[in-house]
Amino acid sequence: LGLLLLGLVGASAWTAWDSAQHARLRIAHQINGVEQTLSTETTYPLTQPVLEDIKGLSGAECLLVEPDGRRIATFSEQPDGLPIASIERGEASLGSRTLLAGRAYLCRGVILRAPHKNAGATLYVLYPESQLEEAVWQAIRPSLIVGLFGGLVAVGLMLEASWRLVRRIRDLERRTSLIAGGDFSPMPMPPRNDELRDLARSVNEMAEKLVKYQEAVGRSERARLLGQVSSGLAHQLRNAVTGAKLAVQLHEQSCSGGDHEALDVALRQLARMSADLERFFDLGKNGMHRVPCSLTELVDEAVSLLQPQCNHAHVKLVWKRPEVEVTIAGDRGQLAHMILNVLGNAVEAASPGGEVEVRLQKTEGSAAIEIFDTGRGPASEVASRLFEPFVTGKPEGIGLGLVVARQVAEAHGGGIRWFREKDRTCFRIEVGSVDTPSGRGSREIAVGTSSAG
């Protein structure tokens, strides 16, 4: 703003100075013209009426001094300090300053030469200094007015622009203060497409990333807590399961006429529970033992293990074994627990009379397991948070199974997600590092809705 005002003042001053110079030059040419007219006119002599007419036309006083000292003037006072008539004709000059009855004049003098009627006389033209100053003021006044008005307008515009700019910057400052306080809601975008709009967009992007970072930190913290809690809980439960399993085995040995099939089922369920607890015990540990694992065999085992539960719940379980066996490099125990967990959830969600279908397919560099069930799907209040710790839609659930399944899938270079397709819920598990051993024939296992216990 200071530079702008300085430029306006400088431009106005230069324009005023230039206008003053032009005004002075115009007056000088005017006096010179009067002088030339009077000194070159040879048809009539310079008399009192002629000089009076010249005064009325030009505004300049005239004085003619004859060689014999006689004077003809348009004024009655005696001028002080008349200059020597040394100014040549045609020279644009205002002359020297002289006083006449207390008034200042700019005086020029020229000696008249033949064939002038007043040859030998000296002609003086005295222009009032006040008229010169008035002419100069009239010349510079527009420049000063325009400069002053333009300066005020420029100051007003700059103050308005500065106020708008400062207001927008303060909005950004308040928004960043809210972000620092934990409020990551996006700020409204400014209407003007300028640098501040780009800055506001960057602030919103930063807030969005901070939200994601906060969620990631929260998930990491919950996972760490989950690992600590589940490890301790699994350790205690594993000891209890081991004791129950030992008791059932001893009971089976001591009761030769008992129901061995029911005891076998109980032992298998205890073995499953023990395996599950082992997986929870390993939750939070970084290391895993990677070996070639046949996903086809792992799905076979999970389907076989869940057959009694499907028979009891009247759920049809369909498993179409792929023609080409799918093998990956991974931790067999973790993969088995993941498949069994997700498949078991699907059996529970299908409800009596429902159906669960398992598909295994090899994709580019990875494998995918899709588990469909005809249940109603997750409740709306937990649908978006299924893979968070302690989030479950089952009254008796604790919300850890899918968390562990996601960690296992991610540890094997993949992930897990769910979606609804044709009134069925599908959980799709993807894992990486696919090997392609020799193929096997396909088979289908269908556990129907029999009434067997």
What labels would you give this structure?
453 residues; alpha+beta; six-stranded mixed sheet; 8 helices; 18% strand; disordered C terminus
Helix and strand element order: HHEEEEEHHHEHEEHEEHEEEE
Strand count, sense and barrel status of the largest sheet are: 6 strands, mixed
Radius of gyration: 54 Å
Number of helices: 8
The strand count comes to 14
**In which order are the strands of the major sheet placed?**
11-12-10-9-7-14
General form? rod-shaped
* Average pLDDT over all residues: 78
Estimated share of beta-strand residues = 15-25%
Residue windows where pLDDT falls under 50 for at least 5 positions: 436-453
Kindly name the structural category: alpha+beta
Helix content: 40-55%
Distance between the termini: 91 Å
Explain this structure:
- This protein is of the alpha+beta class.
- The protein has eight helices and 14 strands.
- The strands form three sheets. A six-stranded mixed beta sheet has the order 11-12-10-9-7-14, with helices on one face.
- Helix 3 (129-180) packs parallel to helix 4.
- The chain starts with a helix and ends in a 6-residue tail after the last strand.
